[in-house]
Specification:
By secondary structure, this protein is α/β, with parallel strands linked by helices. It is 34% helix and 22% strand.
Length: 493
């Protein structure tokens, strides 16, 4: 899908024979049918239709009018965005453009924005929303069944004038939408394709396109470094693990250094603590943290951020092979902490222990990890909220605000010190599971042990990385959750 931004008069847009669908974005205080460009051509029919349907410009309202050849564009779609505040009306606009375009078999849509009252953050959300709504994963379908052929090939956003803040916002939205779709692809591909070696190859490719320094450790390098927790999880799989490090450093002065860690378990069978069959079906998604981090790194240079951004991905499978780690075994993490592994299906915190300790040793200003860490987060928050917790209240609140700005909901959970005793082991420094209650919080408390005093936040998004029911700009499948939240957070620094 191609997304463009241009300026032009209403008359030019009405006469553009290349456009199949003209979209008029309308607030509750504007009247699309009152624009001079429509006088004597569509004003009567358009006004009559919007009045007949009770259209008021409220967010999510839509009216389609056929032009019957009176202008070059065959269909006009009027969509309400309410007062334009917040991301939801703009995501609904983007979703309606794509959905109605598909229904009308349109290949090229033009979105007309008249006046100067449009908020830049709304246009950013519109641009990224078009990307997200157009997304489909059909690479594994036969050519005759690919949905892509029936979707929009181009969306042109046109205004009567080119304001610098609009141009910048649309560029950001384009980049954030593309990065999110990139992460979605990684999660949607089968685990037979997306192996630890595949993630390492993706990291190397991003390093070439984004000017990022990359280092990939194999098993020997990890053993020399002392990453016993990651190697313990990996030892049951025929797929060799990788530890991936990416570092972006901009030219000129660096304002802050942010470290990101993403859980990269490319398939999670549960190990010897084997998952039931139905719980295992979706476990190719257990590397969604790694996918989100790679999505961020895929556009970090293009966004021109004055930050050093470091990314760490512990990549492995968790399989019940003959060499698999056994309940009761003890592993030693990168920082020397010994961990009694009582449940091999609590493996994400083990691989992240090494990644967090490695990242913290390098003393970034802040440290953020993203992980499909616990199933209990879905029980606590449902499917539209992810959990966030951390040691720095300002960092946690900044992530919540960044998520709110793009429609990715985060809810803060506490890290109560009185629960710390749940991860104390009688034979090692820690054990990797608690007593069964407050599982998401226990996972967070475990990870906290490896952050070395660096301001840190943990996002547990097992609940939101895949949706079984599509919603605005989110078709069924991988959502790419976290990419836009982190990028918006980085953009706020």
């Amino acid at each position: 899908m191609k997304l463009t931004f241009a300026t032009g008069s209403p008359a030019e847009q009405l006469g553009d024979a290349r456009t199949d669908l003209l979209v008029l974005a309308v607030t509750t205080t504007t009247k699309a049918w009152a624009w001079p460009a429509f006088d004597g051509r569509l004003a009567g029919d358009l006004e009559a239709e919007v009045r007949r349907q009770g259209f008021s410009g409220a967010a999510g309202q839509a009216v389609v009018v056929q032009t019957h050849g009176r202008i070059a564009v065959p269909y006009v779609l009027v969509v309400g965005v309410g007062d334009g505040a917040g991301p939801q009306p703009w995501q609904q606009l983007a979703d309606l453009i794509v959905r109605k375009g598909r229904e009308l078999k349109a290949r090229r849509a033009r979105v007309a924005l008249y006046g100067d009252e449009w908020p830049a953050e709304g246009l950013e959300t519109l641009a990224e929303g078009v990307w997200l709504a157009c997304y489909s994963f059909d690479e594994l379908k036969s050519k005759s069944k690919r949905a892509r052929a029936n979707g929009l090939a181009e969306v042109a956003i046109t205004a009567t004038r080119r304001l610098p803040e609009w141009t910048a916002a649309l560029k950001r939205g384009h980049l954030l939408g593309a990065a999110t779709c990139y992460a979605r692809n990684l999660v949607n591909w089968p685990a037979a394709i997306v192996t630890p070696a595949y993630l390492a190859a993706e990291a190397r490719a991003l390093a070439r396109t984004q000017g990022v320094r990359v280092r990939v450790m194999d098993e020997r390098a990890m053993a020399r470094a002392g990453m016993g927790a990651l190697l313990g999880v990996a030892q049951g799989s025929a797929q060799a693990p990788r530890f991936i490090e990416l570092v972006f450093r901009p030219r000129g002065r660096v304002h802050r250094t942010v470290a990101l860690a993403g859980k990269g378990v490319t398939f999670d069978s549960g190990g010897l603590s084997l998952k039931p069959a139905d719980a295992m079906q979706a476990q190719k998604r257990d590397m969604a943290g790694a996918a989100a981090v790679l999505g961020v790194m895929s556009v970090v240079r293009d966004l021109g951020l004055p930050l050093e951004v470091r990314a760490y991905i512990p990549a492995t499978e968790n399989m019940p092979g003959g060499r698999a780690i056994k309940p009761g075994d003890v592993v030693r993490a990168y920082d020397g902490t010994t961990i009694e592994v009582l449940n091999t299906d609590a493996e994400g915190r083990l691989v992240l222990a090494d990644a967090l300790a490695y990242a913290a040793e390098r003393r970034p200003d802040v440290l953020i990890d993203l992980a499909t860490l616990t199933g209990t987060v879905r029980t606590a928050l449902g499917t539209r909220y992810a959990a966030v917790m951390g040691t720095d209240p300002a960092l946690v609140q900044a992530l919540i605000a960044a998520g709110k700005a793009c429609g990715e909901n985060l809810w803060e959970l506490p890290l109560p010190p009185e629960y710390r005793s749940d991860i104390e082991s009688s034979v090692a420094d820690l054990k990797n599971v608690g007593e069964g209650a407050a599982g998401t919080i226990i996972g967070g408390l475990f990870l906290k042990e490896f952050t070395g005093g660096v301001p840190w936040a943990h996002v547990d998004f097992s609940s939101t990385v895949v949706t079984e029911k599509g919603f605005a700009c989110h078709p069924r499948g991988a959502t790419g959750f976290g990419v836009r939240t982190v990028l918006r957070y980085l953009g706020s620094l």
